[in-house]
Amino acid sequence: MPFAEVIMNPSAGNARWKKQLPELVAIIESHFAPLHISQTRKAGDARLVTERLIKAYQHKMDDLQLIVIGGDGTLHDVVNGLQRQGHPEVAIGYVPTGTGDDFARANHIPLDPKKAAAALTTAMPHALKIGVADSAKYGTQYFINNFGIGMDAQIVYQTNHSDHKAALNALKLGHLSYAASILKALRQQKRFPATWQVDGQGMAIDNAYLNVFTNHPFLGGGLRLFPNKADNRSTLSFVQVHREKLGILLQVLFAILSGRSVHRAMHHAQGQTFEFATSATVPIQIDGEEYSTPIQVTLHQTKQLFLLPT
């Protein structure tokens, strides 16, 4: 049997799967043995555990493969640990137990943790494109899902600091918590000036509002930023909505919530390298983690190995 190191976050998704964790471990153990389990307690712990494991396996890196049981934030930390240490070749299996689980949704990993754990028994390694954001303010950050400035980051902030997130997670409806924060974020987020470039072609605007750099179409627990026909995983996508009249913004909101994700006010660009800058003070979210501007950032993609269902 292949060996695996498990990095587990019992608090993911407001601990809604905590009682089932022994069962998930037992399913994984039927194929991967022996298992070593490391539990996290706070944000950033998974990255530190990953870095410790790299050091422990430094003379036998071919033997190291990781299984993450947690949310997208936990997976984000593990990926950042591997990438910063220069080991994108270490394969990661993923059992989603978080709130949004957009990485699993985008890569055909079952959203039911038991089914995801069972799927690991036949999973195969695949190199996926992930995002890289380089800035003087935050250094190099790797993102598995999205890097957002403005409206979507405002929604993340409102969601993370809301009472309804825990309540919806308890009902196993955590994917709705993002949508439940949209109307409040609409009232809070203002227009702001920004400049951006894609592969050397630039634009300056004074009414930036929603700006999302993403590896796949999904955001905030299954909200779709663009339709399947525009889903090109070989490039980074940039979805932008300018600050418009409330009626138009509500039309855009309906287009996203309905899954169509097409509206004349939604702008979608794809490219290998993007530049984005703003001197305004607005929220940033990187895979659901909170940051803030002002910022000047360069974004592109690199590869990371994952164990994905066959």
Automatic annotation (TrEMBL):
Domain DAGKc: 1-137
KW Transferase (keyword) present: yes
Superkingdom in the source lineage: Bacteria
Coiled coil: none
Required co-factors: Mg(2+)
Keyword Transferase tagged: yes
Alphabetic keyword roster: ATP-binding, Kinase, Lipid biosynthesis, Lipid metabolism, Nucleotide-binding, Phospholipid biosynthesis, Phospholipid metabolism, Transferase
Biological processes annotated in GO: phospholipid biosynthetic process
UniProt xrefs under PROSITE patterns: DAGK
Annotated GO MF terms: ATP binding; kinase activity
Record Pfam families: DAGK_cat (PF00781), YegS_C (PF19279)
Similarity comment: family membership: Belongs to the diacylglycerol/lipid kinase family.
Protein name: Lipid kinase, YegS/ /BmrU family protein
Organism: Lacticaseibacillus paracasei subsp. paracasei Lpp123
Lineage summary: Bacteria, Bacillati, Bacillota, Bacilli, Lactobacillales
